[in-house]
TrEMBL record:
Belongs to the binding-protein-dependent transport system permease family. LivHM subfamily. Signal peptide: none annotated. One of its GO terms (molecular function) is transmembrane transporter activity. This is LIV-I protein H. The gene is livH_5. It is found in: Cell membrane. It comes from Ruegeria denitrificans. It is a multi-pass membrane protein. It holds the Pfam family BPD_transp_2. GO terms for biological process: amino acid transport.
Amino acid sequence: MDAILLQILNGLDKGSAYALIALGLTLIFGTLGVVNFAHGALFMIGAFCAVTLQKLMNLSYVTIDESQTDFLGNPLKVETPYIEAWFGPEFGATIIDWSVPLAILFAIPIMLLVGYVMERGLIKHFYKRPHADQILVTFGLAIVLQEIVKYFFGANPIQTPPPDALSGSIDLGTMIGFDPNAIIYPIWRLVYFGFAVAIIGAVFSFLQFTTFGMVVRAGMADRETVGLLGINIDRRFTIMFGIAAAVAGLAGVMYGPLNPPNYHMGMDFLVLSFVVVVVGGMGSLPGAVLAGFLLGILESFASTTWATTTIPGINQIIIYLVAIIVLLTRPRGLMGRKGVMEE
């Protein structure tokens, strides 16, 4: 039982990333009808927002410490971060230590701006074009963004460690009645899952309980009728594109401590996230979230030693096998709207 619970936790961890990216993809497809192959790049940009803030916080100046010398007897050069100079050594060091969570505040306006510029500058010109055109142009944009990040940050992964207080592991087993050391789990993985649940809950609450969200949901169902009521639905959809970009970016910010950011991480998640969207149902927000967590858990169980020994390579194809089965039996996806992808 403890092994099963551990695999479920591992699945929820990866499923959280799938669900957040798929949620943003579905928001864009459901509102604008655009198949956005650049969405994985938004996830990557979010991760590098955390990298950028970490680098900014570690900017330092050099002073000469006469009280210390090197092996040649020369005074030592000491690098002091500006943050520590401005806020004091202890508080400044704490701010640097918590750079990843603080990057959430840094990333939100950046991702909203990136989403707005992407939608207004490029995506809006392809609303009425075939999905194949949308895929080609957004995939090309993803490659451009990927190469820009590679140019400025290099090709190697960059470590973005979590705060020291959240970098260890806890004994979950003793909390739920198991023997000590039965289920030892990293704290940050639990933090990421909790963060994903909070973001998903916030998005659904925004769409369900605010006037803006209700108008957006009405526009997703019948765009022309909402427009006839004198509502500028295009402007609201542009804002939703920015929100979708922010959701993907925040997913990337918090994912950095789990897997050091690199320039191709967006592409690594993109295809899998589209599979999640298709399995959950194109245009279905609950379906995207459900499929994200479900496929994350299935992938976790398929990665166990028993599974890979019994069926070699099953962990690499399990998600695609599930997608094939779902689409053969229910083309619209698990929770897709009737008529979508069933022509």
